[in-house]
Write a structure and sequence with these properties.
Structural class: alpha+beta
Number of domains: 3
CATH architecture of the largest domain: Sandwich
CATH topology of the largest domain: Immunoglobulin-like
Number of strands: 40
Oligomer: single chain
């Protein structure tokens, strides 16, 4: 049998991760987290709102410029500028700089970044961006901003470790106090159409860094214009009085990328892009759903949207541009590795697919390949014939100004899958719009084709260059659960039958068998020691969320040939010592089959946090009993013959634990093992109980009395022979009774007893 210390150690590792993370998240004052990778210490900042303010340094030229070239496609333009003394802007935050370590980014592989996102009005196009850096707080090689629609995100990487940053801050602050500016931004933009009202350019950002590289490091958030975002007025193009240029009808075919991502959900959990880690399930039986998301915002902001925007100045033309032969569709493909399968594919090789975020569209088909590994999905317009002019096309495109998602569920692991092994699901998608446009008797054919490309900041952690999602399932931590099988005739004291075989009164005796689970040294003791070790965090147990909790035990009792159940009513099986648990009345979980009964019991109520779990486990008695009544000897059984009843027990505790936004699955598996000092007298290997019954004792036949003879009278004070015989017979009866009692005493001698209820 495995040692209890080894079992406890397995559970303690998981608990240490949870409680240490919770303690760090809940600490109200400055704390230190040890970086196990570097051996250094990084100071966790005091909680509170930390912020860097850049907004006041931004401005625009606040005017519109009309192009002298009347045929120019860029008649309106402007410039956004900022000259920033970065150290001065960070002065409210500077006294909170940690004294040691590095400002690690989320991956804990490099220095953190200051991210700042500028968002321009929908009818504005950015022509150029220029950022120059003389600050020593950040690295000089500033990369081009990442564009997402009309938003541009700049990333300024922190320079060196915190001691160096502190020294550089002091040097830069001295220069800035003398009037120097250490970061300069210049962005040139234009618009192809005027607007009837003024619009704004907005900006905000963040600096998130981790205090170390270990699991126990602390994340610190610093806002950049977070509480009061930057907002400056763009040029009022209408007041510029620039002339409008007629927009030509679209013609020909244009191709472009459509950013996309694959997200996953395990056992009904929230969808996860799994960008920085593999999406883990808590068991091999877990079921995934995979969602392919097309960021159709690209359609609105991209080439197709630009065509529609050309007519913004004269929207009355929309209905004058007729459309015909309209086709608008998206195709998606999802391919599983060999170790995953679709569980919901029907006999026609179809699988259900749910569409979201696409009003006016529907799933036209969803089919599975012959090998059962690939699903092909086609999405199309519900009523393509209703798109008869540009006005209806614009309305359709406007409705797609969000993500289009299609979800396929019922994905699980095959028998070949292994725990803690990564399996990658791959996807592909694209779309096409085509139509004929007619205006003033002139018709042009045009089309737009889109190919899905993985969005970089949502990329899979294992295969980032593909539209992919990598999954696995955790390996359950195996543990032994000390167990025993007790029994007795119904109404009598149950015994463990360790020293000798249990002897029933007769073949007609009916026994109640009790499966014992000694949870004190495994479940209760472990949780108690864990809570004592991390007692300082006990007030925050509610913050540790638990979902998909599976906590239960399954026991079996198998009778040998020669024994049987007198009653197979599962409602008569009882559970002792576990007020927070109940025996399942589902015949698929608790049932009799032949000479074997299977009993499953699990938590009564739904558990959503660690506090609820802790309170439930504390209510458990040191030993739990599952009582199965109605066990008897069958006809044809033999007296003084050993009959060994065999039991098994197993348990599982798995869940998904969430703390500070991070979800971690875990699983434990218990296997019942016979407690050595309670082992069966005749069959000590295994959870067994051996029983026999006494032979039936038939009453002794008394001889018929002889006729009385004429004999001399007996002298006074002496008994007759007949009474002596009778007395002798009485003595023999007492002898047999004494022998029976003595046998009973020997039979029960040395047995451990517990009250059978």
């Amino acid at each position: 049998m495995k040692t209890k210390s080894k079992i406890f150690g397995s559970m303690l590792v998981i608990a240490a991760m949870l409680f240490a993370g919770m303690a760090a998240a809940a600490a109200p004052q400055a704390a230190y987290a040890t970086d196990s990778a570097t051996g250094g210490q990084a100071a966790a900042l005091k909680t509170g709102k930390l912020e860097v303010k850049l907004a006041k340094y931004f401005s625009t030229d606040a005017k519109a410029e009309c192009s002298q070239d009347k045929s120019s496609a860029h008649p309106y333009s402007g410039t956004l500028k900022a000259d920033i003394p970065l150290a001065t802007a960070m002065s409210d935050f500077s006294d909170k700089f940690p004294s040691m370590g590095f400002p690690w980014d989320e991956t804990k592989t490099t220095d953190a970044y200051i991210y700042y996102t500028l968002t321009f009005p929908s009818n504005v196009v950015v022509d150029s961006t220029d950022v120059s850096v003389t600050s020593n707080l950040i690295k000089k090689n500033v990369k081009a901003p990442v564009q997402n629609g009309n938003s541009y995100t700049f990333a300024l990487q922190m320079n060196e470790d915190w001691p160096t940053i502190k020294r550089n801050y002091a040097a830069d602050k001295a220069k800035e106090d003398a009037g120097a500016k250490t970061v300069s931004v210049s962005i040139r933009y234009h618009s192809t159409s005027a607007t009837s009202e003024k619009q704004y350019i907005t900006g905000s950002g963040k600096l998130d860094f981790w205090t170390g590289r270990s699991f126990f490091s602390v994340k610190t958030h610093v806002g950049v214009d977070e509480s009061s975002p930057m907002k400056v007025e763009a040029a009022d193009f209408t007041k510029a009085g620039c002339p409008s240029k007629p927009a030509p009808l679209p013609e020909g075919e244009t191709t472009a990328d459509l950013t996309a991502d694959l997200l996953g959900s395990v056992d009904g959990s929230a969808r996860d892009t799994a960008h920085n880690y593999v999406l883990s399930a808590q068991s091999k039986k877990s079921v995934f759903s995979v969602t392919g998301t097309l960021h159709v915002n690209d359609l609105v902001k991209g080439q197709m949207g630009e065509v529609i925007k050309k007519y913004n100045e004269t929207p009355e033309l929309f209905s004058d541009i007729a459309l015909s032969k309209v086709k608008f569709s998206f195709d998606a493909k999802l391919t599983l590795p060999q170790e995953l399968k679709f569980t919901m594919a029907d006999a026609q090789s179809r699988v259900a697919a749910a569409l979201e975020g696409a009003p006016g569209f529907e799933v036209k088909s969803s089919t599975v390949s012959a090998d059962g590994k690939t699903v092909n999905i086609t999405i199309g317009l519900k009523n393509p014939e209703s798109i008869t002019d540009f006005a209806r096309l614009k309305s359709l495109i406007d409705s797609l100004d969000k993500d289009l998602s299609v979800t396929v569920g019922g994905i699980t692991f095959t028998d070949d899958a292994k725990p803690d092994t990564d399996y990658t699901i791959e996807g592909a998608a694209g779309g096409k719009f085509s139509a004929s446009a007619t205006q003033n008797g002139v018709t042009h054919e045009f089309a737009y084709s889109y190919t899905a490309a993985q969005k970089p900041d949502e990329a899979d952690s294992v295969k980032p260059n593909a539209l992919a999602l990598t999954v696995n399932y955790v390996k359950a931590v195996p543990m032994d659960l000390p167990s025993d099988l007790l029994g007795a005739e119904t109404g009598k004291t149950r015994v463990t039958e360790h020293d000798e075989v249990y002897t029933a009164s007769s073949r007609k005796s009916v026994l109640t068998m009790s499966g014992a689970l000694h949870v004190r040294d495994i479940v209760k003791k472990q949780m108690k020691e864990i809570e004592e070790k991390y007692g300082q965090a006990s007030g925050g147990f509610e913050k540790i969320g638990l979902s998909n909790v599976d906590y239960g035990f399954t026991a079996t009792l198998t009778l040998p040939e020669g024994m049987e159940y007198s009653d197979t009513d599962i409602s008569k099986i009882t559970l002792e010592g576990a007020p927070g648990f109940e025996i399942s009345q589902d015949p698929a979980q608790t049932f009799y089959k032949g000479r074997t009964v299977t009993v499953h019991f699990s938590l009564k109520s739904k558990i959503v946090n660690y506090r609820q779990l802790s309170d439930t486990i504390k209510q458990l008695q040191d030993t739990l009993y599952v009582n199965v009544p109605g066990v008897r000897f069958a006809k044809g059984s033999k007296a003084n013959t050993n009959y060994t009843i065999r039991g098994t027990v197993s348990g599982v505790f798995s869940a998904r634990t969430t703390l500070s936004g991070r979800t971690i699955p875990f699983a434990f598996e218990w296997t019942g093992v016979q407690q050595p000092d309670e082992a069966d007298a005749a069959a000590p290997e295994g959870i067994n109980f051996t029983v026999k019954y006494r032979p039936e004792v038939k009453p002794r036949t008394q001889p018929k009395p002889e006729p009385k003879k004429n004999v001399p009278a007996t002298p006074s004070g002496k008994k007759q022979d007949g009474r002596l015989a009778q007395t002798g017979s009485g003595v023999m009866v007492l002898v047999f009774a004494a022998a029976a009692l003595a046998g009973a005493g020997i039979t029960f001698a040395g047995r451990k007893r517990s009250t059978l209820q």
